[in-house]
Amino acid sequence: MSGMKSVFRKFMLTGAALLCALPVVAQDVDVDELLRAMREMTVSQGNRDVMGSIRKGRNKVPFSLSARGKTIVFQYKHDNAWQRFDVRIHERNADLVLVKNGKAQVMAPSAYAQTIAGTDVCYEDLSLRFLYWKGGKLVNDSSASRIKGRDCYIVEVKNPSPGTGQFAWVRMWVDKENGTTWQIDGYGADGKLRKRFSITSVQRLSDGTWFFKQMKLEVRNPQNPNRTMALDYLEMDDLPERKK
């Protein structure tokens, strides 16, 4: 699997003309290629095993992820035992699969929103399953395209399987220069914001690849989406340098 830097460079060369002050035109950008670069930056570091924790207040739940081809293995520690689930990537979507005692069972979509180990983070949140949806489009909204002072592409993707999972569609802000996915908003079928994922810090490795350091997850009030009713953080350990 190529590094995020090379993938994003390929995308940027394809759409180099878009880096001027002209408005973004959706048909000039391969959105699926952009999403692929976002996935590599957010959930994949080649064959690295990545460690981190989910933090809710003082409670910290260790977890790990490792990407192997079209399968990403997630493990988290609960009651002094490690639990595992996989993300198995298909052409237009991804399945979540529970693995216990060496046996794999496809997770029922009704379980996607089940929270993990006393946190507000559910299986779909930790896996970022929506990054594997296809058929996204760019949104032209110059008034909302800057996050943390950075110029971003705004990408909107509809759920290819309506009714499966907690979101009907998501909107993502991805940095035009380095591919950082600064914010992801997940909306329900009623059009209301349900959750917001915000990257608060990133880490850059010596080979030029980027990976998020901390991501904030806000669960919004169903009656008032402008209010946050729960707050958790995904915090990654420092990544070791790749061996040459």
Mean pLDDT equals 81
How many strand units?
14
- Taken in chain order, the helices and strands follow as HHEEEEEEHEEEEEEEE
Oligomer: single chain
Global morphology: globular
| Low-confidence segments | 1-27
Written account of the structure:
The protein has 244 residues and is mainly beta. The protein has a single domain (4-60, 119-236), classed as outer membrane lipoprotein receptor (LolB), chain A. 12% of the residues lie in helices and 43% in strands. The chain is built from 3 helices and 14 strands. Strands 1, 2, 3, 4, 5, 6, 7, 8, 9, 10, 11, 12, 13 and 14 form a 14-stranded antiparallel sheet that branches. α1 runs antiparallel to α2 (31-43). The radius of gyration is 17 Å and the shape is globular. The protein starts with a helix and ends in an 8-residue tail after the last strand. The relative contact order is 0.15.
